[in-house]
Amino acid sequence: MSEKKLTVAVLGATGAVGRRILDQLQQSTIPYGTVRALASAKSAGEKVPFGHEVLTVEEATASSFEGVDLVLASAGGSVSKNLAPAAVKAGAVVIDNSSYWRMDNNVPLVVPEVNPEALLHHKGIIANPNCSTTQLVMALKPIHDRFGLDQVIISTYQAASGAGQAAIDEVKAEAQARLNGQSMAEHAKILPVKSDKKHYPLAFNLLPQIDVFEDGDYTHEEYKMIHETKKILLDDKDSREMKVTGTAVRVPVIIGHGESVYVQTGDEQATVADIRQLMVDFPGVVLEDDVAHQVYPQPVEAEGKRETFVGRIRADLENPGAFHLWIVSDNLLKGAAWNTVEIAEKMVEMNLL
Amino acid sequence: MSEKKLTVAVLGATGAVGRRILDQLQQSTIPYGTVRALASAKSAGEKVPFGHEVLTVEEATASSFEGVDLVLASAGGSVSKNLAPAAVKAGAVVIDNSSYWRMDNNVPLVVPEVNPEALLHHKGIIANPNCSTTQLVMALKPIHDRFGLDQVIISTYQAASGAGQAAIDEVKAEAQARLNGQSMAEHAKILPVKSDKKHYPLAFNLLPQIDVFEDGDYTHEEYKMIHETKKILLDDKDSREMKVTGTAVRVPVIIGHGESVYVQTGDEQATVADIRQLMVDFPGVVLEDDVAHQVYPQPVEAEGKRETFVGRIRADLENPGAFHLWIVSDNLLKGAAWNTVEIAEKMVEMNLL
């Protein structure tokens, strides 16, 4: 373990994830000394809580990182693109929540329980996976290692908070409008995608679009889930050894993503009991699968928790070795802030910080 | 076409589906004469609208069906079990929304666009499929006929109204409580399953339980979807020719079920363009699949419409001949009331009424 106190900068400290990074950092085993809150010029001067202290937000610029050992970043792709190299040049390690660096061959994409060894080869920037990927690979990893995975098919049920605080406010305003018998349409300004042309209400609705559309009519979110899952689980980068596909849907939940996942393992002898035991044994995963007592993962129960919850495990009755899983986790914690801080904890433990 | 005026009884006329059956009947091409509203003793004397008229609800008993030609029933399994045979004995044809008769070998299970020929062999009772099945087979039928279907994997996103008006009221009360910063728990009395032991809030949540749990930890809803889909699509009842499996999830939507469906066709040469054309050509299906203009099916847009909407059609990039579909329909109309009335329209057209 490193003995020095680390100077930590939280970049994007005023956002829904940034505030939670400060919370998680404060509760972590990381030996932090000075903690600085950085954000855009617009937010400079704002106050953000850090345990019982209050930090004053400073504007983030390329010269903000002098003397900083660790940057925990959640400020969007373009900010990370510009500032992460400056922070690395100043001697810091950057753990980044944006999608910008994730598929870069020189950047490890890490879930600490799943592929900590990837941290050994870092070159200053470590990427935190997309929220829908993180909880998915937590459940897939032990199955992949024990039985192999031939195919994974995912349908997501993703919460509004994945699009930030403004999306949370929007879905609440829409819900109140409909409960009052008023139109929801005027409140729809952010979802499904702020930068896209049309906006639709999410309250009491389902939006099968998360992020922009790309080749083959898949969304960027769907591609992130596919490519990041392969990068994390496949050592040799041979994507052909495990097929991954899926559909990403935004649902009117505030916090907590659900995923209905179908896995075809490589072993026709694998049983539901085997899969359940793998979940029990895997750190960070909690098995919630006792249907006789109506126990199964639910977003409102996962809110505020660090773990990934797995239940509704069933064998496909016609396809040996294939199973259904229902995976739920707090998308702002394991899907973002906690995984980021947990990477730093792991790097301290591995003497990489 | 039959020329006589049909005496029609709507059984369960006070429920969310029953009221919509009256609406759909009033707007239909069925040559109805007298229309009677039947329900439990508790509701006798209540008034229900029928177009510009008002009907007075009568108590439904075994002797209610004298002179009735057609019974449109949506009153639950135990009522249908008891009263449908009495109605048939009195000379009526019964089109039933409950699950009780659906898998009976002597009862056709019918979606008029999909398998009208099954009506030819009816023995008085015709079953209307479960809501999640109906919209599914609307999209699957043309694919099955053209390319064959080796496997179908479904994840549902089902609206509260599938559990009746009380469930709609419950999810609205929960949503208002959470928006007010109050606990949702006290409002949870019906969902996920009224007769089961525990009840959980659905507002801003996801409940991976619809109906009770059965063998292999599948829910009754999941089995209904699997078995009914096979009964409707497979002429020879050989279930091995098409594997069907899935997960049913209740979502905080009022009206309109979503389904994320993965199909492995029997033809590796099938293309997205082929699947889209099949949807355009199939009666009752509307293709909503123009992602460049953010056009895709949404429950709030499907509400009040009779059609089944299909979009987000994509090829699995690693598995030739496999596709994703996103299917949305009003679960109270095509999933229930409209399909029931449409069966009767089709029977009139086929001179079976």
TrEMBL record, chains A, B:
GO molecular function: aspartate-semialdehyde dehydrogenase activity
Pathway terms, separated by semicolons: Amino-acid biosynthesis; L-threonine biosynthesis; L-threonine from L-aspartate: step 2/5; Amino-acid biosynthesis; L-methionine biosynthesis via de novo pathway; L-homoserine from L-aspartate: step 2/3; Amino-acid biosynthesis; L-lysine biosynthesis via DAP pathway; (S)-tetrahydrodipicolinate from L-aspartate: step 2/4
Positions of NADP(+) binding: T14, G15, A16, V17, K42, S43, S161, G162, N331
UniProt superkingdom: Bacteria
Keyword check for Amino-acid biosynthesis: yes
Residues covered by the Semialdehyde dehydrogenase NAD-binding domain: 7-122
Catalytic activity entry: L-aspartate 4-semialdehyde + phosphate + NADP(+) = 4-phospho-L-aspartate + NADPH + H(+)
Catalytic residue positions: C131 (acyl-thioester intermediate), H257 (proton acceptor)
Binding site for substrate: Q158, R250
Keyword Amino-acid biosynthesis: yes
Top-rank EC class of the record's enzyme: oxidoreductase
Keywords annotated in UniProt: Amino-acid biosynthesis, Diaminopimelate biosynthesis, Lysine biosynthesis, Methionine biosynthesis, NADP, Oxidoreductase, Threonine biosynthesis
E.C. number: 1.2.1.11
Annotated residues for binding of phosphate: R102
Database matches in HAMAP family: ASADH (MF_02121)
PANTHER family found in the cross-reference section: ASPARTATE-SEMIALDEHYDE DEHYDROGENASE (PTHR46278:SF2), DEHYDROGENASE, PUTATIVE-RELATED (PTHR46278)
Subunit composition and interactions: Homodimer.
Similarity comment: family membership: Belongs to the aspartate-semialdehyde dehydrogenase family.
Protein name in UniProt: Aspartate-semialdehyde dehydrogenase
